[in-house]
Here is the input.
Amino acid sequence: MTLLKIENLTKIYIRGAETVKALDSVSFSVNNGEFVAITGPSGSGKTTLLHILGCLDRPTSGEVYIDDKAVGKMNDKELDNIRRLKIGFIFQQFYLLPELNVIENIKLPLLFSGNPKKIGEEYLNEILDTLGILKRKNHKPKELSGGEMQRVAIARALVNKPEFILADEPTANLDSENSIKIFELLKRLVEKGITVIVVTHNNELASLAERRIKLKDGRIIST
Amino acid sequence: MTFREIAFKNLFRHKVRNFLTLLGIITSVTVLYSILSFNKSFINNLNEELNKTGVHFMVVPAGCPHEVASLVLHGAVIPKFLQTDIEDKLKEKLDKQYDVLSPILVFQLPNQEKQRIDLIYGLEMDNVKNLKPWWKVIGKTPQKENEILIGFEIADHDKIKIGDKYKLNNKEYEVSGIIEKTTSKDDAFIYIPLKEAQTILAQKDGITAIGVKLKNAEALNDTIDRLSREIPGIQIVTINQILTSISTLAAGARVLSLSVVAIAILISTIGILNVILMTVFERTQEIGMMRAIGASRAHIFRIIIEESVILSTLGGLIGILLALLLSKGIEKFVKSFMPYVPQGDLVVFDLKLGILCFFFTVFLGLIAGLYPAFRATKISPIEAIKG
Ligand SMILES: Nc1ncnc2c1ncn2[C@@H]1O[C@H](COP(=O)(O)OP(=O)(O)OP(=O)(O)O)[C@@H](O)[C@H]1O
Ligand SMILES: [Mg+2]
Here is the structure.
């Protein structure tokens, strides 16, 4: 079943007199349960594409359909709800709140969503266990290693039981051993039925995904 | 976990910065509460005290500045005497229509032995209960011409007990009574029989002022008019005028001090605004992240405004508590500036006033947080979290 349908997506940035075409008529679809890696050289539009898929930014033209619903027609409130309940974000910089401990950081999205899916301690412990950070539950971020911090961030992305995960270079700040671990974790999420779309520079890691979309100068050169 | 908890925990990220801001708020609130409470009790106590005084008006020398004339009841030392015949003239004009007619003589007397200046208040001892009905005298009011009454401060300082001797101008007097603490200027005086005071000063009929209570209070205005017309060289100050002019003095001091507090409060409010705005700027990326993972603009607004409300709530609470804790010290300090101080505690716990000051502070915190919170809602998640 199709989860995401992207049609003729174009994004033009205007910088003074100059215009930059970050995305140029990009079209593709992603099915439920797919593991997609988006690769391409720096400046090719990967982050721009991910932001539009994540309902953080709007395209100049074209449309994104999530579960057959056009994102362009949604208001701010509907977009907030999509971000809360359908999408899990993972960032290159982790962005954990330093004063909150691991479990509090992970529960943060529940505060914003109001926890409509009634997620309880049991599920929280399950993801912590899966990610190998159960023992770190009450630690502050500064007491964790980079790999652990990113696993906390993944747990945070999973807490609202999203349909898909968007990750922008989640391993850029990690060594290769930890990077592979993170990709293996993402793979296990896919096995559980979650769709994962991950941006990476690293070809070796990208080959761990089932499918690869290559971008260059805002265009898809292979899917 | 709640928005408040997040805001609260975040305040610990910059302990020193936020603590200093808090200190600013606490100081302003402490001073604000003290001044407001002080003024309220000041007027109340003053009213009460003057109402208890058993005289209707004071006769003082003409040409004495009005404010100073108002203070004679409380032992202001004025460098002028009533003419010697005034007391007789007054008695004649009043024609027995008075209950109390109490001449007093107030002056400063160098004390060689103790290397200081004593404040002497001469009066007819029978009139003590009329002029100062609130006094509690330990021992007894002087009955003989060599007996004196001592204010609390002097007794306390010199460790004087009843029956001790006290030397004034080389003559020994016996302390027959000590006045219990009034916390007013009365505490600093030595009270001696009028005749003795006049002897010491070598002013046989010298009088600073005369306190008068009429038989019929309704005749007050007419009597004052008549006396002023018929006896030259005098000035008559009623208890009401005393009250008004002291209140005016106090109100002037209050306006001045309140404007200083207003500035302090303004500065500490800007202080809150400043630190909260700083955290918003520093946390641009975090706020962007929170937006990305589902926080609405309203959520972000709340997290930020809570921080400034927590700061101002803490500041308000601690400030008022501190004002109560330090009330004795603050009172002493302020009293040293006041020309006339009624007896009793002047910084007292006033629940209504405390609540008012507290909510005022919280309200200011809310105001100070508005702009930073608004700025935070304008942070775009994409700009903040660029990979
Ligand atoms: N806010 C913006 N204003 C103007 N131009 C922008 C903006 N954001 C991105 N661009 C431009 O759009 C193009 C695509 O940028 P994007 O960040 O999507 O690339 P990327 O593939 O993620 O690169 P990298 O691998 O370096 O992260 C680049 O040329 C970039 O300079
Ligand atoms: Mg990028």
Remarks:
- Residues 3-48+246-386 of chain B form one domain.
- The longest strand of chain B covers residues 98-111.
- The pocket of magnesium ion (ligand 2) is lined by residues A 46-47, 168; B 387 (CB under 6 Å).
